[in-house]
Amino acid sequence: MSVPRYWREEVPRYRLQGKKCKACGAKYFPARPVCTCGSTEFGEYKLSETGEVVTWTVIRNPPMGYEKYKPYMVGLIELDDGIKILSQVVDVDPEEVSAGLKVEAVFRKVKEDGKEGIIQYGYKFRPVVE
Amino acid sequence: MRKVAVAGIGLIKVKEYWDRPIGSLFQEAAYKAMKDAGTNKIDSLYVANMSGALMQDQLNMGTVMADVIAKPGLPATRIEAGSASGGVAFHEAVKAVASGYSDCVMVGGVEKMSDVLPEVVTSSLVMSEEQEYTAYTGVTKAGLSAMLHRLYLDIYASPEEVGMMAVKSHDHAVGCRHAQYPFKMSIERAMASPMEADPIRMMECSGIGDGAAALILVPAEDSGVEVAGSAVATDYCSLAQRDDPLTFNAVKTAADRAYKMAGVKPSDINLAEVHDDYTINGVLSLEALGLVEQGKAAKLVAEQGTARDGKIPTNTMGGLKARGNPLGATGIYQVAEVALQLRGAAGDQQIEGAEVGLAQNMGGIASICAVNVLRRLA
Ligand SMILES: [Zn+2]
Fold first, then answer.
1. Could you tell me the sign of the dihedral formed by the alpha carbons of B238, B239, B244, B250, in that order?
2. Ligand 1 mean position to A3 CA, how many Å?
3. Which of B21, B113, B133, B334 has the most C-beta neighbours closer than 10 Å?
4. Residues B47, B78 contacting (CB under 8 angstroms)
């Protein structure tokens, strides 16, 4: 992972920040250069940090770089503001996950690029404790 | 636009060729195709290859393969569209002949997956996804498919019904000489295999194999097999961007265009080769192709509706699961198999009287799809 490539995604990943179309109000995460309405004018938009699990899986044979975290869960989450996001689901056993599980964003380490590379961080989601 | 015919077919068995380099596989398929067509006077070359950059450190694959078949001077293009590379390359080759620009095109697919470790294959597969917010999560292609699989099970079918997609592909591969796994697999064995990405089990996933397939395309005359319809369509890359992740819009759009071009309806299709890299993707493809109503494909498969004598014979030579899935070559294998069926040259796999068949090849999780419809002439 190159430093600029990592650095330019820091704000969206660290703050869970997307964009809102100034023409039609559509909200995006991650940001897009063009809205489906055709507009290219966007403002900043802060995503909801809570939502529900729509569907999920357990990754047992991960891609390179993620081996030491296996097995881990990845889910499709619908946030309270309607935005859908893919994320790891953590701090819970797979048996305890079901569709509709309430989850909240947490800031976590994602992976390390070897001994000398970047330590990558970002969002993951965990169950909300009522 | 000129009508286009498939004049030559060359396939090699999908397997792990430890002792042969990638070029040797391509050469064998290419020579078989030229021999079959009765000509070596090709005027352009399209090479479908997905992961040579990662697996062989090789780019410029068009030139490399023109060199391999000792045809320097040939215009050559490498097409990469994830695991839809083959279907998309075929589409481009069809356009080259249809437009009148080329008169005798070779379109070949090649992939050599056994040169790398399985985790490199896993990483390669997820390279077809958007990297910064999808692959970044550590998800795999199996994992993304698994999330669809779970949604489908919640609404439409049992795990066994979806798993039957793999069982039927294996049934159809028995006796197929170019299939990687030409043996039966029971639903019990599939359901007892370890989880790959819950709820997808290992025996519901296509494997790792090396393969090459080549076709020769020429202007159609009044006999042989013509390309009746050919289309490609895309969708938003991420499942999170789609309103209904269980609807493969790229497949629907490509199919609608290809059917319209061919002047056929889904009910006119006599056999289908669909993209069953994971069982659920085969099931959802049958639905998006309009061959089965939404939510009913797994049940149809379980009730033998995709068997050789079923309503819509599907994956008649084993599909991605049992013929094998050598990524960039897969889409060319599919078209070649449909062409063999329409020629009546499918041997033990023959669907009697088949006149119209389709091949559906997709990349990413249906973020790109090629649908090619072939028809028997006279
Ligand atoms: Zn807009």
1. positive
2. 31
3. B334
4. yes
| Run of H or E including B76 | strand B76-79
Write out pLDDT tens, residues B140-160. Answer: 999 999 999 999 999 999 999
For residue B254, count other CB atoms closer than 10 A to its CB: 32
Query: Is B294's pLDDT higher than 90?
Result: yes
Mean pLDDT of B122-147: 98
Number of independent structural domains in chain B: 1
C-alpha distance from A84 to closest chain B C-alpha (Å): 5
Please say whether the beta carbons of B114 and B120 come within 8 A. Answer: no
Instruction: List pLDDT tens digits, range A35-88.
Output: 999 999 999 999 999 999 999 999 999 999 999 999 999 999 999 999 999 999
Tell me how far apart the alpha carbons of residues A56 and A76 are, in angstroms, rounded to a whole number: 6
Q: According to the model, what pLDDT value does residue A114 have?
A: 86
Domain limits at A79?
A: 48-130
Q: Phi/psi class of residue A25: alpha, beta or left (left: φ > 0; alpha: ψ in -120 to 50)?
A: left
Is there a domain that residue B58 lies in? Answer: yes
- Specify the CATH number for the domain of residue A95: 2.40.50
Instruction: Pick the residue of A61, A95, A108 with the most B CBs within 10 A to test the interface with B by mutation.
Output: A61
pLDDT digits (tens, 9 = 90+) for B361-370: 999 999 999 9
**In the numeric block, which tokens belong to residue A49?**
């940090």
Domain shared by A37 and A83, yes or no? no
| Cα torsion angle, B281, B286, B289, B292, sign | negative
Q: Indicate the helix (H) or strand (E) that contains B356.
A: strand B356-363
Please tell me the distance from the alpha carbon of residue B20 to that of residue B33, in angstroms, as a whole number: 20
The yes-or-no verdict on residue B378 having pLDDT over 90 is no
pLDDT the model gives residue B224: 96
End-to-end CA distance of chain A: 38
Contact residues, chain A, for B118 at CB < 8 Å = 61
CA–centroid distance, B238 to ligand 1, in Å, is 18
Domain that holds residue B74: 4-117+209-217
Residue with tokens 């793999």: B166
Instruction: Please indicate, yes or no, whether residues A79 and A130 belong to a single structural domain of this protein.
Output: yes
CATH number of the domain where residue B62 is located? 3.40.47.10
Full DSSP string of A13-70: HHHTEEEEETTT--EESS--SS-TTS---EEEEEPPSEEEEEEEEEESSPPTT-GGG-
A73 shares its domain with A10? no
Q: Considering its fold, how many domains does chain A have in total?
A: 2
A90, A116 in Cβ contact below 8 A?
no
On whether both A88 and A34 belong to a single domain, the answer is no
Examine residue B199 and say whether the peptide bond preceding it is cis (omega within 30 degrees of 0): yes
Q: Which residue has the tokens 């989880």?
A: B195
